[in-house]
Amino acid sequence: MFFKRVSGLVLVVLSIGLLAACSSAPTPAEQKAAPAQEEAAPAPAEEAAPAEEAAAAPAEEAAPAEEEVAKEESQVVEEPVAQNGEAPGAGARHVCAIGGADAFFAVVKNGADLAGSLVTAAGSEYTWIPLPNYDNIGPDMVKLIEQAVAQGCTSLAVPVWDGAAQAPALAAATAAGVKVFMYNSGLPLLEDGTIEAYGYYGTDEWKAGVAAGEYFATHGSKNVRCVNTQPGAVNWQQRCGGLIEGATANGAQADEIIMPAETFGDAAAISAAVQAALAKDPTIDGFATGSAADADAVGEALGVMGATAQQGGWDVSVNIINRIIDGEALFAVDQQGWYQGWLAVSQTWLYDQFAILPADPVILTGPALITADNAEVVLAGVEDGYR
């Protein structure tokens, strides 16, 4: 501001200006509050600095006229301060999901791919990494985890079927900076600390097994077998173990028919094993299967043997739902695979991109029992690939 010794009129004008400036000064209460507000605001992220510098450049190139400086200074509004760490949305991410190799995971992939389309629409990358089969599940999963790290995945959603094999590979992925989430299988390994992950999205397989065993026992079956074509897999161990507990707690007998992993989905091998079990013990009156494909094979075996054993098990298909409606099957355990895929990819990306997490790291998608009471309600969703 320039001062000149001028007439009394000018001095009056200056006096009025000074009075106005004094009236706009902060009160003592405001001065006291200001430091607290400044301390509460987090420091700008280092990544945000280039944007701030770029924003400052135009101001230097087009400086306001001197007579506007005082006016603009009185109207300054502070910009929001970025949180510590990388600013949300700063930089593309590569979200990856490893999935299985059967009809159930085709539905899981439907949900994952829809979430993935939102990831790519937001400018990041999404990749589905399929397991070729379940014959050599531990070593194959390790290879896929290592592949995810090598191809630059910044976050990974993964089922844990073989904890002993997968835990070291996932620990190495975490050490490499990959954010790991679990889905579909492996909840007990997260709970006991064997594997560290930001969350788990899937069913509680032990509770599902108990519910299945109870349903068999309370609906007429007294001697139940759990057909296990994935021995050693975390989720299948819990399914059959829980079923045995649920059945025996309600007065029935229960046991497993343990088969080699390469027989998963092998209708001929499963049918032969069920027929052999019935020939050895005709009192068996209930069979549980761990997948929709295995259920079809058991149904075939019961027809060949002319057996009246009740059938139930995990996962759904149009055939299974129609058999429940027709009274040929007792129930199906639904873990809502589409929802698992959707949650796995969407939540993994939300954390990777924006550090958003639900309050509870475990979101359960099951178990739920589909019976004659509700089978028709869910049929449309099964037909359309959502269940």
Secondary-structure content class: alpha/beta
Q: Shape from CA axes?
A: elongated
What's the CATH architecture of the domain at 94-203 and 337-366? Answer: 3-Layer(aba) Sandwich
Fraction of residues in H or I helices: 40-55%
Mean pLDDT: 83
How large is the radius of gyration? Answer: 32 Å
Percentage beta strand: 5-15%
The biggest sheet, with number of strands, parallel, antiparallel or mixed sense and barrel status, is: 6 strands, parallel
Please report the first level of CATH classification, the CATH class of the domain at 94-203 and 337-366: Alpha Beta
Q: Termini distance?
A: 74 Å
Structure summary, number of beta strands: 12
Can you count the helices?
15
String of helices and strands:
HHHHEHEHEHEHEHEHEHEHEHEHEEH
Quick gist of this model?
The protein is an alpha/beta fold. The chain has 15 helices and twelve strands.
